[in-house]
Amino acid sequence: MVKTFFDLLLTAIVVTILVVVVSTSSNLLWLNSMNMPIDFSLVTSTFLKDVVGMNFNSQIPLYLLISIPLILFLFSTKLISKRFLLNRVFPYVLAGGLSMLFLMILLPFALDNLEPISGSRTNIGKLCMTICGCLGGYLYGFRQIRKDDNEI
Fold it and tell me: Suppose 15 and one of 5, 65, 136, 147 were both cysteines; which one would form an S-S bond, judging by CB atoms 3.0 to 4.6 Å apart?
């Protein structure tokens, strides 16, 4: 159970970092399209500032915003998978992707049509965020399947 909890936290951290990368990249790509010069030091400093700013300096920390639905979906999938004896990664990938998709679609409804994560303003951004959730679900599923294989 402790390993499952650790895996859930690790997955939420990885997905949060991926979301920050996508959000920062989309903002930097937009700035580049406006002919602003972008170099490697600007990219790294902006990414680091966004990681700190989105998680520690905002009203609602991004980690908390992402981890709540992600952990609920992944843990529910784990319980369902045990019930039906599914020992595959795909349900976790689907759960991770759906958690992020639902978060990106439903969050503006809760916040009066405000997009708190700038990278999800467009449909392509929502798709990229969903892919981040899928990657997190894959990481979690892979670690859970490997853990179950080691126990046998």
Answer: 136
